[in-house]
Amino acid sequence: MCPKDSFPLPRIDQIVDSTSGQGMLSFLDAFSGYHQIPMSPDDEEKTAFITPHGLYCYKVMPFGLKNAGATYQRLMTKIFKPLIGHSVECGKFLGFMVSQRGIEVSPDQVKAVMETPPPRNKKELQRLTGKLVALGRFIARFTDELRPFFLAIRKAGARMDGQLPKRFGKIKHCLMQPPILSSPIPKEKLYMYLAVSEWAISAVLFRCPSPKEQKPIYYVSRALADVETRYSKMELTALALRSAAQKLRPISSPPVIVLTINPFATFCTSQI
C-alpha cells in the first residue's frame, strides 16, 4: 500500500485573490514539470507499462501516480518560496484578468457566454450553466439568479422556456460591465451585506474608499439544503453570516461591519 501524501495543493480562489492589487506580477509555467523529478531507482519498476516491444518503466515521475501532485507541489513550494508573493502589469491568470486594479473576469469567458445561443436541449443547458457558474464570483446573488437553470436541468426534456430567457438576459446585462473585485487594504474597515431568500443565502464583502464609493471584494452565494429551507429569516441571516465568514476567512481579518435589513444584532443579543 502506498500511503497518501497529504501535502496541500493551493486553492485557485485564494491564489487569484492574492494577486489582486499587485503592481507587478510574474507568471511561470513549467515545461514537462513532472518529468523534472527523478524516480527513486528502487521504485522505477513500479511504473512499468506495456508496449509492443516489451516492458518499459519511467526514470522520471510520470502523470497519474497517487502522490504525483503533492510531490510536485512540495518541490515548487520549496524552490520558489523566496519569490512567491513578491515581484506584467496585467495578465491572464487561472481564467481571470489580474492587475493592480483588482480581479476582472476574462473577456474570453464573457465572450463565450454572450455568443452562446439559447439552449435547445438538456445537454446544451448544462453546458451554458457550467459557463455561468465559472463567473459566479462576479455576480451578486448568483445562486438566486441561476435557480431557474438548476430547476430546468433536473426536469426531463429541459428547454429554454419560462424564466430562463429573462434570467439569461439579465446575467448577460451584468456581464456587459462586470465589477472589478478590489483587494482589502490593511487595517481598513470592511463591510458586508447579507441577503436571504427562500432557497439561497448570499453576501458581498466590500470596502468604502470614500463615503460615496463602494468597491466589491468578493460575492458569496449558495443554495440552501432541504432542512435549511425551514429556518426562520433570522436563522437564515445567521447562517449567511457564518457561511460568508468561513468562505472569506483568509481576507476578512480587518474589522467587518455587517449590514442587513433584519434586526440581526437584537436577535443575536436575545439568543445569548
Query: Helices and strands: which structural class?
Result: alpha+beta
What is the arithmetic mean of pLDDT?
A: 79
List the domain count as a whole number.
Answer: 3
Q: What is the count of helical runs?
A: 8
* End-to-end gap: 50 Å
- Strand tally is 9
Rounded to the nearest angstrom, the radius of gyration is: 23 Å
Secondary-structure element string? HEEHEEEHHHHEEEHEH
Helix content: 25-40%
Biggest β-sheet strands, sense, barrel? 4 strands, mixed
CATH class of the largest domain: Alpha Beta
- Spans where pLDDT lies below 50 across 5 or more residues: none
Which CATH architecture of the largest domain is right? Roll
What would you call the shape?
A: globular
- β-strand percent reads 15-25%
Instruction: Give the CATH topology of the largest domain.
Output: Ubiquitin-like (UB roll)
The largest sheet has its strands arranged as 8-7-6-9
Short description:
This is Retrovirus-related Pol polyprotein from transposon 17.6. With about 270 residues, the protein is of the alpha+beta class.
Summarize the SSE layout with pairings.
Blueprint: H1 12-19, E1 49-51, E2 54-56, H2 68-80, E3 90-93, E4 96-99, E5 102-105, H3 107-114, H4 122-133, H5 142-154, H6 164-176, E6 190-196, E7 200-210, E8 213-223, H7 233-247, E9 256-259, H8 264-271
Parallel strand pairs: 6-9
Antiparallel strand pairs: 1-2, 3-4, 4-5, 6-7, 7-8
Helix pairs in contact: 4-5
